[in-house]
Design a protein that fits this description.
Layout (H helix, E strand, L loop, with lengths): L6 H13 L5 E3 H13 L4 H7 L13 E3 H15 L4 H6 L8 H8 L4 H10 L1 H4 L3 E7 L3 E8 L8 H19 L7 E3 L9 H7 L3 E2 L5 E6 L12 H20 L3 H12 L7 H7 L4 H10 L4 H18 L4 H7 L5 H12 L3 H7 L1
Parallel strand pairs: 5-6
Antiparallel strand pairs: 1-2, 3-4, 4-7, 5-7
Helix pairs in contact: 1-4, 2-4, 3-4, 6-7, 6-11, 12-15, 16-17
Length: about 350
């Protein structure tokens, strides 16, 4: 078959996919929205997916799982071909609850937006996410802060843009109301023009901030969802619980190890032996499983420490506290490791963020 973009492009995408092996997969439904946007601007997204090594059969199943690196490679190539500086922002506009895996159906049958997003958080493993969130509450507003999940590879601004845009699109679609945030902050530099951000988000937008976040009025949580079905909700949630349990049993070892490391990092007895024991396996088995996923215990440990260090430095944590938290013997050892990980000293990193 003759390729529209050429075989050399397919080779480039496959090289990107093979460069990073996170061992993490996500729901195909996340890719669906990207493919819909690509189609709307005349780009054959299915062809890009095939170039990334995805079987064409996967593209017809919403609940299929795809490798994270394939998703990111398709996104990167889509940005390059389209030349769209607001690619992620536009992609988020194509998100709809009922195309968002089982979780979308669950949300669409909740009574209020607050209930819908609480359910989405509870069953987020079904979709899989490259981002993690935390919420800062005040009397009138709530600020949801987004950052790369501890196990995720390096993410572009488009992942954050699509998450913010997608959340708003979901809220507007489920409620039938033109919901507007109080403010959106991005940790990335401002684009040449902010008009699209203002059009899509319909609120004040700030760039070059310490973190990416969306601030909403607390009243939004009480807005009713259009045509919820309590009986259907109960049935879908039962299915979602079973699916979550099934996915938990099949999680990649690297992700399980990263979670265990986060829990036990400051333990005095921390070692590969203690982490392996917490996962009910021997150190040798743990290493073998990690090798089969293209990584090793040291790599997972370093990556987990780096992400935790970056997060705490961005939040203004002291070097002494971070040193203790990450299990280093002294601050100088932490500084040396951080410089090796990022090419920057902790102070230089803090000044840049």
């Amino acid at each position: 078959m003759r390729r529209k973009y050429g075989d050399s492009r397919a080779i480039v995408i496959l090289m990107r996919v093979r460069t990073v092996k996170s061992g993490i997969d996500i729901s195909h439904s996340l890719l669906t929205h990207m493919l819909l946007y690509l189609k709307s601007i005349g780009i054959d997204g299915d062809e890009l997916a095939c170039d990334a090594g995805l079987d064409s059969k996967i593209l017809s199943h919403k609940d299929a799982r795809i490798p994270t690196e394939a998703y990111l490679a398709i996104q990167e190539e889509g940005v390059r071909i389209s030349g769209d500086e607001c690619f992620g922002l536009h992609m988020g506009e194509f998100i709809e609850p009922r195309s968002y895996s089982v979780v979308g159906y669950l949300m669409a049958n909740c009574a209020t937006l607050g209930d819908a997003f609480r359910k989405a958080t509870r069953y987020s493993s079904i979709v899989g996410s490259l981002l993690s969130s935390s919420t800062r509450f005040s009397f009138q507003t709530s600020e949801v802060v987004l950052e790369a999940a501890p196990y995720a590879p390096t993410l572009s601004r488009h992942c954050f843009d699509s998450a913010i845009s997608g959340v708003l699109q979901m809220m507007r679609s489920m409620s039938g109301q033109a919901i507007r945030p109080e403010k959106v902050r991005f940790s990335f530099p401002s684009p040449r023009s902010t008009k699209e951000y203002e059009r899509v988000l319909q609120c004040p937008v700030c760039f070059d901030m310490k973190h990416t976040s969306i601030t909403m009025d607390n009243k939004v949580a009480g807005i009713p969802v259009l045509q919820p079905d309590e009986g259907l909700l109960e049935y879908i949630e039962s299915y979602a619980r079973d699916l979550c349990a099934e996915l938990a049993n099949g999680q990649p070892t690297a992700r399980l190890a990263a979670k265990a490391i986060l829990k036990h990092l400051d333990d005095k007895s921390f070692s590969i032996k203690s982490i392996a024991s917490s996962l009910s396996m021997s150190p040798r088995t743990l290493q073998a499983k990690l090798r089969s996923e293209g990584t090793g215990f040291k790599e997972v440990l370093d990556d987990t420490r780096r992400r935790l260090a970056e997060k705490n430095i961005r939040e203004g944590g002291s070097i002494e506290d971070i040193t203790y938290m990450l299990g280093f013997s002294e601050p100088s050892a932490f500084r040396k490791a951080f410089k090796k990980w990022t090419g920057l000293t902790p102070r230089e990193y803090a000044n840049r963020t």
